[in-house]
Automatic annotation (TrEMBL):
One of its GO terms (biological process) is respiratory electron transport chain. PANTHER family: NADH DEHYDROGENASE [UBIQUINONE] 1 ALPHA SUBCOMPLEX SUBUNIT 5 (PTHR12653:SF0), NADH-UBIQUINONE OXIDOREDUCTASE 13 KD-B SUBUNIT (PTHR12653). Belongs to the complex I NDUFA5 subunit family. This is ETC complex I subunit conserved region-domain-containing protein. It is a peripheral membrane protein. It is found in: Mitochondrion inner membrane. Keywords: Electron transport, Membrane, Mitochondrion, Mitochondrion inner membrane, Respiratory chain, Transport.
Length: 242
């Protein structure tokens, strides 16, 4: 059941949730694009879990839950989605150089990158986090203070001349990517009720945690036999006997 506080504070007159507004849970804000985010996370999980053996109970459980939730998310389509998808396909076809396919999520600077996850293509917006100079490790460079005023040396004058003659490197004009249409407030509530795991923002956080957990479980190889077998009766708990 959606919290009354969120209904009153976050819903626009057109019945759309406003991104960044309070959800009623401390520290949790309304997500800007929960549907596409969940599809990307679920696809990434399904792709990554392929590294585990097919007979692994962990893999079977993760795949079952993830595919079930992905089907629920896919079934809820925002208004205007078909027209948006048509426009975005045209943009990708017209500007392939702007959306190069990459397999790594390590990207320098702000960019819109195209990645494939579990046979699906996604355009992911990468915005680097701002650096806090207060916690940045010192690189050893000495601060020589502000730039000196007055007459320049011959070397400085030569550098300034080169700088003034240098022209800007103007590349191809950037392409503006159109975000996926938003789900209506009623659609979000419908999806929350079907998943049954709290607010849609909580579902996103759980999906992020599940994706990170896959790496840990693969590293631990949880499907293998224990190196040290448990003692007899170790996992037998107290029970009432006749």
């Amino acid at each position: 059941m959606r919290r009354t506080f969120r209904q009153l504070a976050s819903v626009k007159p057109a019945r759309y949730l406003e991104a960044g507004t309070p959800t009623g849970l401390t520290g949790l804000r309304t997500h800007i694009s929960p549907r596409s985010t969940l599809l990307y996370l679920y696809s990434s999980t399904l792709e990554k879990i392929q590294a585990a053996p097919a007979h692994s109970l962990y893999r079977q459980s993760v795949e079952a839950v993830t595919k079930h939730r992905m089907a629920l998310v896919e079934a809820v389509v925002p208004p205007g989605h078909a027209e948006w998808a048509e426009r975005t396909r045209a943009t990708l076809a017209a500007h392939p150089e702007q959306f190069k396919l990459v397999s790594s999520e390590t990207v320098d600077g702000a960019a819109a990158i195209r990645v494939e996850r579990d046979g699906r293509a996604f355009v992911v917006r990468h915005v680097p986090k701002p650096k806090d100079e207060r916690v940045t490790e010192w690189d050893g460079e000495i601060d020589e203070g502000a730039e000196l005023e007055g007459t320049r040396s011959l070397e400085e004058k030569a550098d300034l001349k080169l700088l003034s003659e240098r022209s800007e490197l103007i590349g191809e004009e950037g392409v503006k990517w159109e975000a996926e249409p938003q789900l209506t407030a009623d659609q979000v509530e419908e999806l929350e009720n079907k998943i049954g795991a709290g607010l849609i923002e909580e579902v996103v956080e759980v999906a992020e945690g599940e994706l990170r957990l896959v790496d840990t479980m693969l590293q631990a190889k949880v499907w293998e036999t224990l190196e040290e077998q448990p003692a007899e009766g170790q996992w037998v708990y107290f029970e009432r006997k006749p």
